Amino acid sequence: MSFSIDNVSQFINTYYLDPIRGDEGYNPVNTITWAIILGICIFGVFRLLEKLEVKITPRFIASVLPFVLAGSSLRVIEDSPADIFHPPFSYLLITPNIYFLVFVITVGCLWISIRMQKAGLVKDFHLTFAGLGLVCFFINLAVLLHFNSIVYPYVPVFVIVAGTGITFIFYLIARHFKSSIFTNPLNLSILMAHLMDASSTYIGVDHLGYFEKHVVPTYLINLTGTALVMYPLKLIIFIGVLYVLDTQFEDDERSLNLKVLIKMVILILGLSPATRNTIRMMLGI
């Protein structure tokens, strides 16, 4: 029994706890685990939003995005060499723990915003909700700029221009072929977020000496010798995913709400690392 317990303990430490303590990134085991947990959480969030009577619309998604920026910038604070936070609290700011922390903060702000609307204190909870997220984001930026200097100011320019530029070219092609799926603003936003993530990976890995932490991208970058491979990888994956989402879901309201929620999660999974990578490189962290 002790041998089995020791093996289980070693397994958990090797594949789950050590990567968090050392901020070592992902391995095949924890990647699959976090993906399963994410899938379960999507349905949990779906039920929670139903209970809060929140309709998952593009407007709601827009009000969530400031919290993505806030969470990503908070993660960079932990990366900062200024050692602003120390263990064990700093472990909360390492992926994937930080996702749960930001989720709790986001849900708390959403609940407060909805209660304020119901009490007649605000007319629209979306604006209040987004405003709280922006306040968190700007506080994080202020902290980062206080303890760090801007080293590579061209990084955010490149990431935004490259991501939006390739998305715009894709939009023109989709419009030429009269594709309603790939001219949809939400779908284009998803592609743009992931292309900005690809852009941040490319400039970081190929030009600034950073390295990729995810399993599949690392393999492909090592195989091809360049992080440019992230562009076709992102396009192939998410063109396929968006096509399936927009053609295979039922048309009833509940299914449509779930579809939009899944799209929101996909958008966040692109925008979050893009924001974190960009801020880190801009500050030379």
TrEMBL record:
**Organism superkingdom:** Archaea
Q: Which UniProt keywords apply?
A: Membrane, Transmembrane, Transmembrane helix
Keyword Membrane part of the UniProt annotation: yes
Q: Which InterPro entries match?
A: DUF63
Q: Which Pfam families match?
A: DUF63
Entry-linked PANTHER family: DUF63 DOMAIN-CONTAINING PROTEIN, HYPOTHETICAL MEMBRANE PROTEIN, CONSERVED, DUF63 FAMILY
Question: What protein name does the entry list?
Answer: DUF63 domain-containing protein
Give the organism, scientific name. Answer: Methanosarcina spelaei
